[in-house]
Design a protein that fits this description.
With about 325 residues, this protein is an alpha/beta fold. The chain is built from twelve helices and seven strands. It is about 50% helix and about 10% strand. About 45% of the residues are buried.
Length: about 325
């Protein structure tokens, strides 16, 4: 039986209501099943530590061909991952890729296309950076680096892989955001602004790619004990060291906490790769636009739901309506 998904439903308006419900049930069933990623080619950015490192191994163990990318290779993290791949017979290719460097992006994507025999099935934009502290103390060096990594980096990657995906009429782009891409906590610098931008970029892209058969999903993790906290603390202290006090003097309590931030507690960072694997295994056209991931509070859920309602109410009957409804599973 042919897969029923949102895009096939667009061609059958008379049965849209009943079949849309069927499609959603099928999508939920897929999430509950054990993911099978055999035959999938997946490129992941930021694989030296954290979610990217865990995802590379997890996806490969589920049968995928994984292109695990990281900056500044050779490095010990690359050697460690290669040893794991060799020991377990995993199809992992470790590539040098800094999302700030267009030539490294082009080289890595070209290699992945060659080894995959064509377009990638999945791009995971996972690489990210964070500085702590009030927004006023974020100098332009920190601000530009954060936007360049968290927003322009994914855009560079998207532009590199999309022509082949569009030609194939299939593919999935997963952008790793944060619950701080929908809610705001003070003293996280411009991290939230960059993740808000990534959320908007992802949603606009999702609408535009409906005619091309390419899905977009935003992963919204809560706090997990990964290296982002240590790296952020180091970045924050470097920021503080080059400040002359003009801006930091206004925030003594917040500045005094720089370099001390931890998060995630005893939560399991594998929650994120598992959620991504489930989404990758879902049929095209049934994947969610957003997926909050955390065992605790997920304050972004009502925001996500309200925004979906507003989008459908605002543009649902416009010429963009089929795209909007497709993405929001209406």
């Amino acid at each position: 039986m042919a897969n029923i998904n949102r895009r096939t439903l667009l061609a059958g308006a008379a049965a849209t209501g009943a079949l849309a419900a069927t499609s959603r049930i099928a999508a939920q069933d897929m999430v509950e099943a054990a993911p099978d990623l055999k035959g999938k080619s997946i490129l992941i950015t930021g694989c030296s530590t954290g979610f990217g490192r865990l995802a590379a191994e997890h996806f490969a163990k589920l049968g995928a061909k994984v292109f695990a990318t990281m900056r500044n290779t050779p490095r010990p993290e690359a050697d460690e991952l290669q040893a794991v791949a060799d020991e377990n017979g995993l199809d992992i290719h470790i590539l040098r890729l800094d999302v700030l460097e267009q030539n490294e992006i082009d080289d890595a994507v070209a290699y992945a296309h060659e080894k995959s025999g064509g377009a990638l099935d999945v791009l995971v934009n996972n690489a990210g950076i964070s500085f702590g502290g009030p927004i006023e103390i974020q100098d332009l060096e920190a601000t530009q680096l954060t936007f360049d990594t968290n927003v322009f980096g994914p855009q560079r990657m998207i532009r590199a892989v999309l022509p082949a995906m569009r030609a194939k009429k299939s593919g999935l782009i997963i952008n790793v955001s944060s619950q701080l891409g929908r809610v705001i906590a003070p003293s996280y610098g411009v991290y939230s602004p960059t993740k808000f931008a990534l959320e908007a970029l992802s949603e606009g892209l999702a609408y535009e790619l409906v005619p091309h058969g390419v899905d977009v999903t935003v992963i919204e993790p809560g706090g997990y004990p990964t290296m982002i906290w240590k790296n952020s603390n180091e970045n924050s202290m470097a920021l503080l060291a080059r400040s002359d006090g003009t801006h930091t003097s206004g925030y003594p309590e917040l500045v005094s906490r720089l370099g001390q931030r931890t998060g995630g507690g005893s939560t399991d960072p594998m929650d994120v790769p598992r959620a991504m694997a489930e989404i990758i295994a879902m049929p095209a056209g049934t994947r969610p636009l957003r997926r909050p991931v955390h065992p605790g509070a997920k304050p972004q859920i009502p925001i996500n739901e309200l925004c979906a309602q507003v989008q459908v109410g605002w543009l649902g009957e416009s010429p963009f309506g089929p795209w909007i409804k497709d993405v929001h599973n209406v």
